[in-house]
Amino acid sequence: MISLSNRTHPALLSAPLSALLSALCLAVLAACTTSHPPAPVEDRSVASKTPASAPVVTAPADAKPLPGAENAGKPGYYTVQRGDNLTRIGLDHGQSWRDLARWNGIANPDVIEVGQVVRVTPPGSAVESNGVVVRPVASNAATNVQTTPPAASPNIRPAPSNPAGAEDMAFAWPANGNVLAGFDEAKNKGLDIGGKAGDPVQAAADGQVVYAGAGLRGYGNLVILKHNNTYLTAYAHNQKLLVKEEQRVRKGDKIAEMGSSDADRVKLHFEVRKQGKPVDPAKFLAAR
C-alpha cells in the first residue's frame, strides 16, 4: 500500500491518476462504439400493405343479372330505386300495380329489387320523346271490313265516359270542405281539403279502383282511381275505405270516409295524375 502525504512527489501522484483516467476514457469509448442492430422501421404507406402482386377481386363471371337489366334506360321502362314499391311506381307512371306485376311476370308484388328494371307501359305500346304512351290501334284495313261492337250486357257498367287520352277531363270536387293547401309541384302534389272525421269522400269521375290500402308511406289509407289511359286520381288520409281494388265506380260515388291517417289533422289529400305526373287539380275542378 502506498501512503500519500503532503510530502509525496507530485510525479508519483499524477502518473497513476492520469493512467486511470485514460483507462476510463478508453472504456467509455469502447462501450459507445459497440455495434447494435438498427431499430426496425415500420412502413405505414398504403403501398406496403397492398403488394403489386395482390390479386384483384372481381364479381363472379356467372353472377345472375337483375330482372330486366337489358332494358335499363329504354323508354317505357323504370329502374327500381330504394324505397320503391309497385304501388308507388304505378302511381308515378299512371298504371295499376296489378298491371305492372302482370307485364313483368312478378309473382310476389311485395318483392322487387333495387336495380331491377320494370316495364311501365303496356306491351306493344311505344313511348314518344315527351313521355306520352302511344298504343297500337286495331285495324281492319286488310279486309276493309268495319265491325260493329257487340251490344253491352245490362249487368256490366259501361266504360268511363271520357275516352282514352282525353284532354278535356272534368272532375267533381271529392269533398265539401275548404281548401287548406293548394298545389305546389315541389311541396304539395295536390289539394288538401278540410273537413270532419267521417265526412264523405267521393269519386271525382267515373273510373276503376286500382289501389285501396295503406301501403304507400305518407298517404295513409289511400284510394287510387284510374279514369282512362291518361288520368289517375288519388284520395289520401282516409279513416275508412269503402271500395275494393278492380271495382268500378261512378262520379259522385262515396269511396271513403275522411280521416287523419298518416297526417297531422283530419283532411283529404286529393291528387290528379296525368301520365303519372302530378298536375294542379284546381284546373280540372269547377269554381266554387
Key attributes of the depicted protein:
288 residues; alpha+beta; Membrane-bound Lytic Murein Transglycosylase D, Chain A; Glucose Permease (Domain IIA); 22% strand; globular; disordered N terminus
Describe this entry's structure for a reader.
This protein is of the alpha+beta class and 288 residues long. Among the domains are: 69-124, Membrane-bound Lytic Murein Transglycosylase D, Chain A (Roll), CATH 3.10.350; 179-284, Glucose Permease (Domain IIA) (Distorted Sandwich), CATH 2.70.70.10. It is 15% helix and 22% strand. The chain has four helices and 14 strands. The protein has helices spanning 10-32, 46-49, 86-93, 97-103, and strands at 77-79, 117-119, 126-127, 133-134, 179-181, 191-194, 200-202, 207-213, 221-226, 231-241, 248-249, 254-258, 267-274, 277-279. Strands 5, 6, 7, 8, 9, 10, 11, 12, 13 and 14 form a ten-stranded antiparallel β-sheet that branches. Strand 3 (126-127) and strand 4 form a beta hairpin. The radius of gyration is 42 Å and the shape is globular. The N and C termini lie far apart (132 Å). Residues 1-14, 33-59 and 136-166 have low confidence and may be disordered.
Residues in helices, as a percent range: 10-25%
Radius of gyration: 42 Å
Q: What fold name stands as the CATH topology of the domain at 179-284? A: Glucose Permease (Domain IIA)
What general outline do the C-alpha atoms trace? globular
Euclidean distance between termini CA atoms: 132 Å
CATH 4th-level superfamily of the domain at 179-284 = Glucose Permease (Domain IIA)
Main pleated sheet: 10 strands, antiparallel
Q: Architecture of the domain at 179-284 in CATH? A: Distorted Sandwich
Mean pLDDT: 77
CATH class wording of the domain at 179-284: Mainly Beta
Contiguous helical run count = 4
Structural class: alpha+beta
Total count of strands: 14
